[in-house]
Amino acid sequence: MTGPDFAKMQAAAAALEYVEDGMIVGLGTGSTANHFISMLGERVREGLSIGAIPTSEASRRLAASLGIALIEVDQADRIDVTVDGADEVDQYLNLLKGGGGALLREKIIAHATDHLVVIADKSKLVKDLGAFPLPVEVTSFGFTITAKKVFDALRATGCTSADIKLREAGAPGRPFITDNGNYILDCACRHIPDAAATANALNTIPGVVENGIFLAFPRTVRTVLLGHEDGVDMVEV
Questions:
Q1: How far apart are CA 197 and CA 194, in angstroms?
Q2: Catalytic residue at 106?
Q3: One of 88, 106, 137, 210 is an active-site residue; which one?
Q4: For domain 134-211, is the CATH number 3.40.630.30?
Q5: Which strands form 208-211's sheet, in the order they lie side by side?
Q6: Domains of the chain: which residue ranges?
Q7: Taking Cα atoms as reference points, which of 136, 115, 134 lies closest to residue 126?
Q8: pTM to 2 decimal places
Q9: For 89-121, how does the pLDDT look when each residue is reduced to its tens digit (9 = 90+)?
Q10: pLDDT tens digit string along 50-79?
């Protein structure tokens, strides 16, 4: 096997080394995270004992089907390690996430974890974020007003392109609904020159619930595992 999917599997397999018996493990969302969850299920069948907190209903269903013990986030006083994917990783290890629609729960869990392990194929490493559309989770109430404010914030922080579309699901015109009952605006910025300024500006807008820029978290070690055909490259902050 070769190609991006093999690279994702390489990174997912490497992430298993960060999981130890007795840990509370955050489970990410998306295709790369699914590889990790499937491999973790194999380890559980072999005797590994952990408690897992999924970041989406899709990840919850997959983990449950594999016999992974799940706990509610409100029952955990700490999260030892979270393993999740990313749509982009920049040179400072800032992340762009939310392609799978779970950015709010992913950020809550990532921010609460001691060690965030990011798994991706090497093509996700970029100089600056923005080639992948930036997801912004917003309330359904007044979302058109919110979208205009999001556009203004993007332009004000140096994003010269800011084509904003409401994410759809199924039939055209049917909004994608997150697990939290919100909408997602996908913002085609192409280039985000100042990730911190953009993230902070977006989160000051009433109606914005969260954005897909994951800056460094003060108390969280961040390790990025980039899979490729010949193995895995590791970068840590």
A1: 5
A2: yes
A3: 106
A4: no
A5: 163-166, 183-188, 134-138, 208-211
A6: 4-125+215-236, 134-211
A7: 134
A8: 0.95
A9: 999 999 999 999 999 999 999 999 999 999 999
A10: 999 999 999 999 999 999 999 999 999 889
